[in-house]
Amino acid sequence: PMGLAHHVSRAIEKGTFKDMLDPVVTDWPVEEAITFAKLCLQCAELRKKDRPDLGKDIVPELLRLRSLGMDNNESGQK
Question: Cα–Cα distances in Å, from 34 out to 16, 20, 21, 40?
Fold first, then answer.
């Protein structure tokens, strides 16, 4: 798992993260995907003290991303 985290982290740093996304999906919200990837990287930290708090940090961000996805889905159906 840390190998994957390293590759994702390096891709974000180098500005090549978009190249890691599924090419079949042509309309990725890249900035939101990067935000989500960074959150995932924080959750993958080895030491518990370095990981974000589930209730305070993770849940609100996941709810925000879900809302964004639902809004995008609804606007795409109109």
Answer: 11, 11, 10, 10
